[in-house]
Amino acid sequence: MRFDGVSVAIDGVHIVHGVELEARDGEIVGVLGPNGSGKSTLLRSLYRALRPHAGAVLVDGDDVWRDLSARAAARRTAAVTQHSAEEFRLSVREVVLMGRTPHQSLLAPATATDHRIADTALEQVGMDHAGHRLFGTLSGGERQRVVLARALCQQSRVLVLDEPTNHLDIAHQLEFLDLVAALPTTTVVVLHDLNLAAAYCDRLYLLDGGRVVAAGPVADVLTPETVREVFGVSATLGRHPVSGAPHLFFSRSDTEGTPECAT
Ligand SMILES: Nc1ncnc2c1ncn2[C@@H]1O[C@H](COP(=O)(O)OP(=O)(O)OP(=O)(O)O)[C@@H](O)[C@H]1O
């Protein structure tokens, strides 16, 4: 998929400015940036929630706004975003089956195939025991896995994840991203944890003020210089001792420049 000079405005306010971003087949691409830098707004234009006023969002060469219907676009791109209140009153199975909507005829009930696909998706995320539960009674981590199952049911080529590890404990963060990393889909993910992004993403795009200010392999984007410039914090770059991936070490702002604390 590709953002080709995409600009997005909300209520006349320009939020995303001329973004160029590419995710190649099977890649996990991270979109990073401070609060309010336009990450969610950009991704909303990919899953057809917000129409760009300039540029094109291309999936498999088709402009998702000009060349595809909403249903056809939903067969290409699935999104995991924050949960809406209405989902809380549905059963887990009903929530997961919502992912089949772009494949069903209008108002037709779910078919045996739809149920089989939902079962497989629930199994994939380890929630097959919970199909009968009310979505609203699940823990935050369980809900996140169910919403991923719904996205898997959409059988799309592209998966959009907007802060999918929010509210998850460290075990569930790793479990969720391991699951995503094992999928064959092209994934575009917003993450606030820069080290999780370094561990799981093939390439990164860093946004600031709605513009891409750095892009490329993890080591090119997550430098102490860019982190200081964009987030305004000091970081030391090292390597993860096991994986060897770039790893940023942050200091408390009141210990900046001081030697290691004595114990
Ligand atoms: N519906 C809206 N009306 C007005 N302004 C909006 C609306 N949605 C977003 N914005 C503004 O657009 C800017 C970018 O918001 P966006 O949610 O895309 O940022 P983000 O990078 O995803 O932020 P965060 O990391 O805090 O989730 C913010 O200043 C936000 O207040």
From TrEMBL:
Q: Which residues form the ABC transporter domain?
A: 1-234
Give UniProt keywords alphabetically.
Answer: ATP-binding, Nucleotide-binding, Transport
Record Pfam families: ABC_tran
Report the PROSITE patterns cross-referenced here.
Answer: ABC_TRANSPORTER_1, ABC_TRANSPORTER_2
Please name the GO terms that the record assigns under molecular function: ATP binding; ATP hydrolysis activity
* SUPFAM superfamilies listed in its UniProt record: P-loop containing nucleoside triphosphate hydrolases (SSF52540)
Protein's name in the database: ABC transporter ATP-binding protein
